[in-house]
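Board notes, transcribed. Complex of a protein with protoporphyrin IX containing FE.
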Amino acid sequence: FSHRRQWSRLPCPPGPRGLPIIGHFLTFPKNFVWLTFTEWGQKYGDIMSVKILGQVIVILNSPKAAKDLLEKRGNIYSDRHLMPFYQMMGWEWFHPTTPYGDYWREGRKLLDRNLRASAVAQYRPMQLAKTHDLLYRLLSDPGSFHHHIELYQARLLMSLVYGYDVKSYNDHLLVVARKMAELGSAVLPGTVLVNEIPLLKHIPAWIPGLSYKPAAQAGFDAGQDVLRYPMEYVKDGFKNGTARSSLALENLQLIEKMQGPQKENAEAILTGVLGSMYTAGSDSTALTIIAFFRILVLYPEVQKRAQKEIDIVTGGLRLPDYTDRPRLPYIDALCREVMRWSMATPVGVPHATTQDDVYEGYLIPKGAIVIANAWGMLHDPTAYPEPFSFKPDRFLDADGSFRDDPLLTSAFGFGRRVCPARHFVDSSLFISVSCILCVFHVGPPKDELGHDIPVAFKDSGTNSSRPLGFRCTIVPRDDRAKELIVTANMAVA
Ligand code: HEM
């Protein structure tokens, strides 16, 4: 108690001066928040804070501060801020935003059990088959590469989670997942006004442009579809013995042995967690692979060097697979640099505190929102010289062997809430990048005369940083490459 009295006299971490009552309500950045956070960090330091309508928002700008608080004091810093918009959408089941409590804990156990490094190895044959399917789609219709990549990611996850084979980009589940990704990106303060002013949730639906109810209803419907349809598919398959192997099936079989409320509870957690996997996972990895295409257009010398390494290993006679990985250090380094250079979620998902805390003489009050500016950490020129240049060599030793960088996991968040799928992402990225490089040349788009058209790359600037549609040419490297794609696809079909 006496501690708390002393603490209450301590200042919050420093930050720009805000207006009375509303604080930084008007000045908190709406887009490219990581750029503003990095700029603020240079002025106010590794730990700083702002306020919006009395809500304290702490921003961590260094790996040390993020580790000290989000990891070492994970018991205090693993909660999520309550967001009225999410409540309106009925997304209490959505694991990335659930409070730090029993529901989260049970779900997290399930996620960790199924996505830990040793478990992920068994998904490789499925990842390889889906990658071969991606190659064939890129060969058949290169202009729609954005769609193929989104579909690829959905196919991976739906297969892993439900044993369901998504056939097309217009599959209903993909449409609702896109809707959820769009509505779900509102995790940062200042993006949806009703999160700051909860009273706004009472504005009736008939007041156009002001009510959040229609958007919340769309979010609710999308969420229900994500939860209901795929589970019904698995349960039907389970009953009539046609279900393919999947995380849903495996866990339903375990739950089947339970009784009463324990069974009901376990099934509700399972349904929520599996739906969260699909929705949390489809967008972020697809964005990373799309960014990889952008890199190939911008850095032809990287493409050449990577292809040379693959050709030496495969002799140009086959597609690479996971067993080649130890002999592809440049590809590994390239994948790491993709994660650093183009981050799918530059400031992750905000954490929140469950009790008052003191760090470096500053008070971090209970209920504070805590955002780790991972983008700033991975673009710090002292740790990553020339941070805006794409340089896989950063992750290679002088003898050319791959050197991992523990700081890079910041791209997946911190502490107890770190992305549980990071090993799965690592293995998807490795296989898609190496197979694409093996058979395709990717370059800038061409005009009718075959001249390069300069490409202007733009980002949406939202936290799931989205490269806005750009074009590129994707052509097989030679006839042999074409044959490899067709043969691999025949094996998948
Ligand atoms: C490039 C791909 C991905 C990136 C960059 C990424 C990044 C993140 C980040 C930054 C967080 C928040 C961590 C924190 O709070 O500190 C997170 C959480 C989460 N991610 Fe990922 N993720 C990716 C792919 C995936 C995939 C493929 C899945 C599902 C298979 C997935 C499932 C989840 C879940 C369920 C959470 C919530 C964890 C929790 O709150 O305990 N993610 N991810």
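The beta strands are 47-52, 55-60, 351-352, 357-359, 362-364, 369-372, 440-443, 458-459, 467-468, 473-476. The pocket of protoporphyrin IX containing FE is lined by residues 95-96, 108, 111, 157, 276-277, 280-281, 284-285, 288, 344-345, 348-349, 351, 411-414, 417-421, 424-425 (CB under 6 Å).
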